[in-house]
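RETRY 2/3 - previous attempt timed out on the joint model. Re-submitting the same 510-residue input unchanged.
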Amino acid sequence: MGYVAVKGGTKAIEASIDRLKYDRLKGNEIVEINTILATMRTLVDQVMSEASLYAPFLAALAIKQAGGSMEEAVFLLRAHRSTLPRNYYSETVEVEKMFVERRVSASFKDIPGGQFLGATNDYTHRLLDFNLVEESMEDHEQWLAEYKKGLEGINATEIQYFPKVVDYLRAEGLFKTYPLDDTTPKDVTKESIQFPSDRSERLQVLTRGQTGAVTALGYASLRGYGQVHPTIGEVRVGDIPIHVNHPYEKNQDEEDLFYIGEIKVTEVESFVPVPVKKNDRKEELEFEIGYGISFGQNETKAIAMSILDQCLESPHGEFPTHDEEFVLLHIDSVESTGFISHLKLPHYVTFQSKLDSMRQVKKGGKTNAN
Amino acid sequence: MKRKQRTEILIQDGGSLANKLAETITTKYNYLEIIKPQYGLTMVKMRETAKKSLFYVGEVLITEAKIEINQTIGIGLVIGMEKKMAKSLAIIDAAYRASLPETKNWDVYLLQREKQITELRAKEQAGLLKSKVNFETMEV
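RETRY 2/3 succeeded.
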């Protein structure tokens, strides 16, 4: 069964697009890009993460244009990304140089460097704050002045960099150590993923996955549709510096790199107990590490990614969350929302064919399939 | 001063120092814009901490410019939509690569600004550290 071309919708489409604009404008309110950037930080982060493009201004513009639709905003940003040249690859980012804004561990209370909460909703009452209905700039300025006053007198001249909890455990011999693996990563934006996949492909697909989809599958694994139930070793949020090599200078030393700025990420290591058979055939528990990362501050997604990373590292036929094809081919926002929403486009011929078959059966005749 | 340190100071400064230094060059030397400031992408390569392997975390929007001074090309690269800063960074890069005499005096300004930026960021971090948790074990 093939597709047929139909026409006659041009004027209707034009009128529909006008109506879309009318719906956006009819309230006589304008939301500025800077307002979105300043007040909807985590929404911007989520759009950047799912679009796999770190560009806060463009993400805010996409949110405005999409009227707040996440899937549409991600689609717009992905589409825009495809119009830009990729002229550089960064040098390998080492997260030890992160400017950490938040750092917590669910495994140890006393981690080297300590835990600090930074900005989080975790400890807020989930009650609507009706004071926000009528905020004023004067109130803001007063609050900010008082907050800054509280920071006066702080004496600090050096930035602190915090060691990874996992490195501390490795140094104690409690976790397996791995040598640096400098194998060139594969890039799913250049070459379609093939199965069995490479670890670099899995991590890239997971980190650009739709937050809801990644979270749902991670949750499914915890609930018994998988075999991974971790303890969070460390969640950290902060800015990582990005460096780029000169395109044509040869014999460059590290000090000749370009620093091009920082990006905010959330990074997670989950500790997953795994039974391992030793030489004497006795089972012992060892810990594996699940890794999660997301552009911006998106801790739920990064934690869920760390669960799925570990699921996919240990394939298990019984559970869909351990099946890389099942997980990796269904979590992309543009692919999944695109395919689902194409169902509302004309399928007249295929549906008529199904109706014809049904009519034949009801008449007692044979179906096309037969 | 080497490029890594210099570009970090100039970008963290936010652009005003870069524009000021670039202006001292453009008022004295002819320059050619080989690539006018334009937007592009940089793919970010990361090392994950579980198995120490490499992967691509995603792309970042950058602004890039290329400037030629005295037959020497300078490049300006900065994350975000920063056309003016990218051009200034390219002029400064060209000035350093061409060893223009003006650059000899710049280290003092750059180091001074680096100290200020570090103190500012250290204070910002110290503010965040006010949310540090002091665990106390409860007796039950």
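Residues 3-120 of chain B form one domain. Closing ticket.
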